[in-house]
Amino acid sequence: MAAAFSLFVAAPLQAAEQPRIASINLCTDQLLVTLADPAQILGLSPFARDPFRSWDKNKAAQFRLLSGEAEDVLALKPDLVVAGRFTKRATRELLKDKGLKVAEFAPARSLDEVKKQLREMGALVKHPERAEAEIAKLDVAIANARAAAQRNPLRVLAVSRRGWVSGGDNLTTSLLSAVGLKNAGGELGLKAGGFASLEAIITLKPDLLLVADTTDFAEDEGRAFLLHPALEKTYPPSKRLVLPERLTACGGPTMVEALDRLSAEINRVAP
């Protein structure tokens, strides 16, 4: 598997320095806010306070919100910029061309990668002990969720708007398998994910659906898919695990809360 992290260095920081860091990606926001001292954080990405995407918008509110473009980052003169591997390439390349150090993180596709990225960010902010503390919390959350799931091992299909199904090679699968649940999406022949028809989902007959919310209002056709009478009849609330999107959009510290929520949902639907 390709390394999830690459660091471009123009000149090393002195070991005694606490680097001043700007983040231009939602997932690196969350790692940075969790592991760095507040004084180290110069700014966060435009989505840091988004209530639907941000893990902790209130914590993010204390920091400057950046545009995500290179200009305001350059004005801050950070020691380091942390970004996603899929953050706008032109922005990343311009920052490097201007001599800034840029650390790039790919989307985590497993809990092992989540742990690796916690350690990598911990090293960058010079607080490795905080990364190890987060990993210890994650291990406890995994054990608790596994204990809940083992009482009732099930096939779970993660499905969202317009029938998008999480396939077999992604963070959702790692999250489910870590606690003893099976991602039924892999049975549809999907690797990372893809769209599945209503008929395919009903034919697959997963034990439970994993959804992001329980709203009964369809603001558009994409949302209406999840409220189709056939799905609602076969999968009422008692057969739906609810895991908010803000907990699964990124790896990192969100996984502890995601696993705790998953444990509670498993206990809720357990017969």
UniProtKB/TrEMBL annotation:
Signal peptide: none annotated. This is ABC transporter substrate-binding protein. SUPFAM superfamilies: Helical backbone' metal receptor. InterPro entries: ABC_Transporter_SBP, ABC_transptr_periplasmic_BD. Residues 20-270 form the Fe/B12 periplasmic-binding domain. It comes from Tardiphaga alba.
